Amino acid sequence: MTTETAGSAAASGNAATDRFRQSGKKSTVAADAERIDRLASKLIKAANDIVLEERVSYEEFNALKAWLIKVGEDGEWPLFLDVWVEHSVEDVATDHREGNKGSIEGPYYTPDAPEQASPATISMREDESGTPLLFQGQVRSTDGAALSNAKVELWHADEAGFYSQFAPGIPEWNLRGTFIADDEGNFKIQTMQPAPYQIPTDGACGQLIAAAGWHAWRPAHLHLKVSAPGHELLTAQLYFPGDEHNDDDIATAVKPELLLDIQPAAEGNGVQTTYDFMLDPVAK
Ligand code: MBD
Ligand code: FE
To answer: Residue ranges per domain, the chain?
Structure first.
């Protein structure tokens, strides 16, 4: 147990770092020296302002250096940036939208999850534990038109708060899938309710959280990418009412519009929820 826990931050961090490298997300932007100068100068100025305002000591400066080195060693740059910065990038990228509010992607998306036509059951272990969750809804355009064959990608943690491909011992596509909605944009997916997620406590990010007296929790959430031809891709997360971390998500990624309405399942055990998505047409 100790060894497993000790290995987990670096293992999931490095998996997230590898995933980023393979994702095709580029490490360069179109070279525009003016823009780079502006952004880098602002970042450097912000750091210097903190040093001067807070009279940062050599001891603190060296602790920062050591910590930044460890963030890289633990592979936790994707985790650090997605937890503490991505929410602002997401706000900027989507504030023109009239359709659904989205939320951050986070570090644990993997593309090309096996495709199934709706209705479907997400890939899970035979003895997957948790509360069965029926997740259904309709994908429409902002003008109200149903989007036939919309695509709903869903990924989330298991009942212990772990993601497949980023924690050991979980089948590759567990609780991950791509679902094709019907002609009316309707989807119906049987899955298992995820648990709240704790940022790994034994890596650099966890060290910062403990040293600062913060908590390491994200509320339980479903991750989604919803798409249809001619429409902007929606990356979102959905949350469960009553979760104690909906109001103090470490990743600042909860929005009121993203709270689900959870009802007892109409058939069988567990719960069900209906959530409709509205996608913005791509601007012409
Ligand atoms: C997660 O599961 C997550 O969604 C984010 C944003 C950051 C860390 C872990
Ligand atoms: Fe997540």
So the answer is: 91-279
The residue contributing the CA closest to ligand 1 atom 1 is 106
Tell how far CA 279 is from the center of its chain. 19
Q: Which atom of ligand 1 is nearest to the CA of 251?
A: 6
Best mutation site among 19, 86, 89, 108 for ligand 1 pocket (most ligand atoms within 8 Å of CB): 108
pLDDT confidence tier of residue 27, bands split at 50, 70 and 90: low
Task: Report how far ligand 2's centroid is from the alpha carbon of 274 (Å).
Answer: 20
The verdict on domain 91-279 having CATH code 2.60.130.10 is yes
Which atom, in ligand 1's list, is nearest to the CA of 105? Answer: 6
Give the span between the Cα atoms of 256 and 99, in whole angstroms.
Answer: 14
- pLDDT tens profile 126-164: 999 999 999 999 999 999 999 998 999 999 999 999 999
CA distance 39 to 45: 10
Q: How far is CA 175 from CA 35, 52, 68, 194, in A?
A: 40, 48, 33, 9
pLDDT tens, position by position, 222-269 = 999 999 999 999 999 999 999 999 999 999 999 999 999 999 999 999
Q: Give the ranges where the chain is alpha helix by DSSP (H).
A: 2-22, 33-54, 58-73, 77-84, 86-94, 204-212
CA of 203 to the centre of ligand 1 (A): 15
Q: Whose Cα sits closest to atom 4 in ligand 1? A: 106
